[in-house]
Design the sequence.
């Protein structure tokens, strides 16, 4: 049923914003997301945020959702190991394996988090709910601009990083300088790292990037709620302990 409603919403949206032909394409994307998300029961219908997630995924957020469908396809072909405990009624899809740009790194696109890794580990689980989940909502909030801005920053960061590396006598490894400019300084990453209470990250070159936090870290209560199900209560306690350790450090 969700597939039908999401398909109709996405079709009307595409037809109204661009053209009837595009409306057919957006309708298919919306219906496909509705079918997969309805089957996996990801939307939290009892909470307002779940309705917002479904509405944005079927309209404004469609460009990212389309790429998310590709991530689903990769996961299906590569035994993605779907993680229901981090997905069901939490407005996102999480795969332990599947698509990634770099081995060992989590990859989030649209409402799909791939290559989440061993999410039985509390730190890994917190990364998913406090960092990767932020990217999902950034894509929903910024809509078509999200991908353009994210990739655009990478391109500008590459040029600025290259110039900075040459000007500062090549003291730091080139890859580290480049990563500091393209990745860590990216406002979308800055935002997500701050939410996860990890700003400044250890990999960033000194003197590069934003000094202050742009947003406060999520509260422990919010983190616990997003960890999902029974596992959430257990891991929530561990995450609480992690936060305490870090404060003491
Ligand atoms: Zn990130």
Sequence:
């Amino acid at each position: 049923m969700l597939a039908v409603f999401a398909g109709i919403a996405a079709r009307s949206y595409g037809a109204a914003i661009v053209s009837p032909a595009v409306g057919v394409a957006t309708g298919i994307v919306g219906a496909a997301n509705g079918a997969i998300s309805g089957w996996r029961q990801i939307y939290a219908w009892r909470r307002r945020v779940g309705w917002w997630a479904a509405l944005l995924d079927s309209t404004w957020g469609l460009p990212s959702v389309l790429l998310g469908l590709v991530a689903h396809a990769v996961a299906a072909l590569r035994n993605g190991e779907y993680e229901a405990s981090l997905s069901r009624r939490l407005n996102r899809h999480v795969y332990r394996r599947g698509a990634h740009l770099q081995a060992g790194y989590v990859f989030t696109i649209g409402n799909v988090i791939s290559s989440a890794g061993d999410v039985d580990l509390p730190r890994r689980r917190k990364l998913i709910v406090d960092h990767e989940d932020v990217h999902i909502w950034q894509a929903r909030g910024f809509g078509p601009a999200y991908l353009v801005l994210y990739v655009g920053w990478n391109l500008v960061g590459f040029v600025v990083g290259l110039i900075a590396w040459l000007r500062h006598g090549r003291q730091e490894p080139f890859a580290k300088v480049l990563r500091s400019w393209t990745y860590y300084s990216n406002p979308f990453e800055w935002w997500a790292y701050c939410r996860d209470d990890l700003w400044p990250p250890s990999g960033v070159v000194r003197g590069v990037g934003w000094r202050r936090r742009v947003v406060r870290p999520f509260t422990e209560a919010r983190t616990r709620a997003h960890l999902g199900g029974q596992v959430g209560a257990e891991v929530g306690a561990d995450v609480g302990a992690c936060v305490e350790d870090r404060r003491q450090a």
